[in-house]
């Protein structure tokens, strides 16, 4: 896989994570709050195992950020001075989608496995056909 494709894949992982994140303490001006919990998008990225496996580390979030997300990712996605107007994880995710869209990448919606399962489980069962009814009558329990 080419490095650029991997960077877009990693950003997609983070976008999907941020779309589902529910926090009222999102702040693009700092990586972590004083208590140690993640604050900004890059701080939250350090909590995702798939990104940790590529070297993203909460102790030094900027150490491998360029390798995981791309050379100019900090300025485009994580710089608090440029992105301080983003007040929720969902706003950040929409901003990131727009940046990628502007570069010719379409980030598909997150595939929700549980929703797909429930849709299939709740799909109406077709009515019994006369052939099936006759089969049941011929072979009683």
Question: Can you offer a commentary on this structure?
Answer:
With 141 residues, the chain is mainly α. It has one domain. Helices cover 52% and strands 0% of the residues. The protein has 9 helices and no strands. The model has no long low-confidence stretch (mean pLDDT 82).
Write out key terms for the chains shown.
141 residues; mainly alpha; 9 helices
- Nearest-integer average pLDDT: 82
Largest sheet: none
Q: How much is the radius of gyration in Å?
A: 22 Å
Give the termini separation: 58 Å
| Spans where pLDDT lies below 50 across 5 or more residues | none
Structural class: mainly alpha
* Dominant shape: globular
The residue fraction in helices comes out at 40-55%
Q: What is the total number of structural domains?
A: 1
Tally of extended strands? 0
The helix-strand sequence is HHHHHHHHH
Question: How much of the sequence is in beta strands?
Answer: under 5%
Number of helices: 9
What are the SSEs and their pairings?
Elements: H1 3-20, H2 41-45, H3 49-52, H4 65-69, H5 73-78, H6 80-83, H7 89-102, H8 113-121, H9 130-138
Helix pairs in contact: 1-7
